[in-house]
């Protein structure tokens, strides 16, 4: 069975996705692919598959799995597997997960973007992971623990995780944003390597990119030439290094990528603007503290 989130014993933090775990490894924050469990209150062991691989090396995106199907969950366990639906084959085909109608809540104002997330405390995360209405059911794959609440997503990295997860159907999943509007993954995401005409509504634009060290600032540059109105350019975003003093993880990642000169996968939520009729820039203010919440980079 694949798991979407897990408790990190190294971080002492719940609700970390496998994609985040993979990036924390490359950031030097996590080192052990086996240092995960189901939740803070359930010590069911989990391993992060593709933990050390870069995105260019994935045959599938990172995910959590159990190293031993014979180990039981704790009695008060709450997991991310939903109930009452069809079976989905996972990895070797022997483990199966139950899914119901695909639905996500995305905590975002489409006009403002993602906001900075405060670190969770131990007391808050432990309560969030206990759901007295959870039930254990039995299927052809054995005991399946179900959680009835709809996943709440508050960060760009987490919605990217769901987008690339084999567990969620991009054509069927419904996403409800703060305004109550219902959208789909296809409404929200645009791959600039394939769809090069930039549209006006705010989206999560992504594609192959590179980071260039320009001395006092970094340039984030998509590798594809895209079109905005009558202008065709590679979209760019400039980040002054003075804005990164309090963002050490992002700073170190930009240094690594600029020194290696290797491509990365860049995700940006927002819109683009034509500047001086010469450039296509992210419509994102790097002087505001939450700018980094609307950028996600996969190495």
Structural account:
The protein has 299 residues and is mainly β. The chain folds into two domains: 2-99 and 111-161, no CATH class; 192-298, OB fold (Dihydrolipoamide Acetyltransferase, E2P), CATH 2.40.50. Helices cover 14% and strands 35% of the residues. It has five helices and 24 strands. The chain has a six-stranded antiparallel beta sheet with strand order 1-6-5-4-2-3. Residues 119-139 are annotated as: Disordered.
Average pLDDT taken over every residue: 79
**SSE sequence, one letter per element:** EEEHEEEEEEHEEEHEEHEEEEEEHEEEE
C-alpha end-to-end distance: 26 Å
Sheet with the most strands? 6 strands, antiparallel
Oligomer: single chain
CA-based shape: globular
Total number of beta strands: 24
Supply the helix-strand structural class: mainly beta
Catalogue the unreliable spans. 80-101, 119-148
Count of domain modules: 2
The radius of gyration computed from the alpha-carbon positions, rounded to a whole number of angstroms, is 20 Å
Tell me the β content. Answer: 35-45%
As laid out across the biggest beta sheet, the strand order is 1-6-5-4-2-3
Q: Quick recap of the structure?
A:
By secondary structure, the protein is mainly β. 14% of the residues lie in helices and 35% in strands.
Topology at a glance:
Blueprint: E1 2-3, E2 5-8, E3 13-17, H1 18-26, E4 36-39, E5 42-49, E6 63-65, E7 87-90, E8 95-98, E9 103-106, H2 122-128, E10 135-139, E11 142-146, E12 152-153, H3 156-164, E13 174-176, E14 182-184, H4 185-188, E15 189-191, E16 203-213, E17 217-222, E18 226-228, E19 231-233, E20 236-240, H5 248-260, E21 264-270, E22 272-275, E23 279-282, E24 295-298
Parallel strand pairs: 9-12, 9-13, 15-16
Antiparallel strand pairs: 1-6, 2-3, 2-4, 4-5, 5-6, 7-8, 10-11, 13-14, 16-17, 16-21, 17-20, 18-19, 21-24, 22-23
């Amino acid at each position: 069975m694949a798991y979407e989130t897990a408790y990190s014993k190294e971080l002492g933090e719940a609700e970390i996705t496998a994609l985040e775990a993979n990036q924390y490894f490359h950031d030097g924050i996590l080192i052990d692919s086996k240092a995960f469990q189901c939740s803070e209150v359930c010590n069911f062991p989990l391993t992060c598959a593709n933990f050390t691989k870069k995105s260019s090396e994935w045959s599938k995106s990172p995910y959590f799995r159990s190293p031993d199907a014979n180990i039981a969950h704790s009695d008060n366990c709450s997991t991310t597997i939903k109930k009452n639906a069809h079976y989905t084959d996972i990895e070797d085909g022997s483990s199966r997960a139950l899914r119901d109608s695909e639905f996500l809540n995305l905590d975002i104002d489409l006009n403002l973007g993602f906001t900075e997330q405060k670190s969770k405390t131990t007391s808050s995360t432990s309560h969030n992971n206990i759901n007295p209405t959870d039930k254990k059911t039995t299927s052809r794959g054995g005991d399946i623990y179900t959680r009835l609440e709809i996943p709440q997503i508050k960060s760009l990295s987490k919605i990217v995780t769901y987008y690339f997860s084999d567990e969620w159907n991009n054509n069927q999943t419904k996403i409800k944003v703060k305004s109550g509007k219902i959208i789909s993954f296809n409404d929200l995401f645009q791959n600039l390597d394939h769809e090069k005409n930039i549209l006006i509504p705010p989206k999560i634009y992504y594609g192959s990119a590179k980071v260039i060290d320009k001395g006092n600032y970094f340039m984030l540059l998509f590798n594809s030439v895209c079109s905005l109105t009558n202008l065709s350019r590679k979209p760019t975003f400039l980040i002054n290094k003075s804005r990164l003093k309090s963002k050490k993880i992002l700073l170190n990642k930009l240094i690594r990528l600029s020194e290696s000169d290797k491509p990365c996968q860049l995700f940006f939520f927002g819109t683009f603007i034509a500047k001086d009729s010469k450039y296509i820039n992210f419509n994102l203010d790097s002087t505001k503290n939450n700018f980094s919440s609307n950028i996600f980079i996969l190495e």
